[in-house]
Amino acid sequence: MTPEEFNQAAQIRKLMVLGYLSPQPDPCLPKNTKTVVLIGPDDENFWPVFKRSPEILDGTSDPLDRWSKRVIDPWANDIGATALYPSDGPPYPPFIAWAKASSTLEQSPVGLFVHAKAGLFVSFRAALALPYELSTKQTTPPPCDSCIPQPCRRVCPVNALKGDYYDVAACHAHLATDAGADCMAKGCRARRACPVSQACGRVDEQSAFHMKAFFKP
Fold it and tell me: Strands, E, within the chain: which ranges?
C-alpha cells in the first residue's frame, strides 16, 4: 500500500494516519517490521460512529479499546500487518518513542504532541507493523513553526504543562475542583487553544469522554 492508500483505508474506518516511521529493533515488534504506521481517530468523523457502537452501548469497561481492536484487527489482517495497541502490556508498546521518531508528529511548546490535522488532540488507537517499507518523509510543515501567538503556553489554569515536564498532580488537583469543570466538560484548555485543534472537528462530548477516562479521583 502507498501512504495515500493508507490514508484512504483509515478514513473509511473513521481513523487517520498520524505518522510513519522506520523503527529500530524492538522486542514488541515482529522481526521483519520495516515500517510502523501510527493510527488515531479522525475526530471529524469518529465520534458519531463510536457513540453508537456496541462497545459503548453495552456499558462494560474499556469500550474504546474494544472498538479499536474490532475495527483495526481485520484491517491489519487484510494487509499483512501486525496491530499493536497502547493497552497491550505490560510491557507496553513504546508509542511515545515511536511518535518522536515519526515523520508527521512533533512535540509542541507545552510538550504535547501536535499534528497538522489533529492539532494537540493527538491520541493513538493503534500502531500497524508492516513487513515492507513506506515513504516516511515529512510532507507538511510542523504547525507550531508558523504559530506565532502559541496560545497553548498561556491557558492552563495551573501551569501544569511546562514543555519538558507535565505536572500531573497539579492537573488532577485542578480537575477535582469546580474550576476544573470546564476542562472536564470540554477537554484540556491547552489542547483546545491550539488553532489547529479548533479546526479538527472534535466535539465536546468526545473530549468529555476522554477526560472522564483520564481523571479517576
Answer: 15-21, 35-41, 82-84, 105-107, 113-115, 126-130
